[in-house]
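Exercise 3.2. Students should predict the tertiary structure of the chain below and write it as structure tokens, then compare their answer with the key that follows.

Predict this chain's 3D structure.
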Amino acid sequence: MNSNDIKNSVTKSTLIQIIHNELTGLDLSTNDYIELANSILDSALDKKQHNGSAAAGYSGRIVNKLPAQQDDIIIRLFDSTKDFDLLRKWTEDRAGQEFLLSRIENTVPSIDELVASDSNILGMVCDTSGKPIGIVGFLNYNHHQQKAELRKLIGNPAKRGKGYGKKASRLWISYGIHGLKLRKIYLYTFDTNLRNIRINEELGFKLEGIYRAENIIEGVPKDIIRMSLLL
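Answer key:
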């Protein structure tokens, strides 16, 4: 057995152990296990056949620079001289705090830290009149590795739940692909945020891993899901 064989064997054993841990206690029947195995096989084959399709999904609206507009939203670069106070206001409620929250480190950086970092690229989401309604960001942008973490927030509560976040994300991701030449965009979300997970899947993101009981939030251990878009 050569080094590659050992590496593949360890990888398979690790994956099997992860799956076993997740399934323990679910009381699945033999048919359930067969159905699950078939689903995993189908998913693997589908991924192999459609490798690179994520980038193709963002080829229709190519955004090389900002500002950019699609339908009823415009995204321009964040301007700290005129946007800082508004961002501070937006981050006072729960949704705003979650925009700032680093789920892995369980820390909330100050707005000053967020804006001052050269590794954070921020964009303001505006309506067609130019009035800001939200913010999007690529945090921890790594030019050499061509990857960044996606964040989004519809700051105006009256505009939430109306599809603006999804529209803004799609336009911002196109800018990340074509303007910043990103090869990978990733994000973190709580396993209980099913609506957000579903929207991320619609945007082309796939499950990358689960941080089990990674941090205690309001006294409760929380699983954190990492999803990514490979380009």
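Discussion points: The domain at 54-230 is CATH 3.40.630.30 (Aminopeptidase). The chain has eight helices and eight strands.
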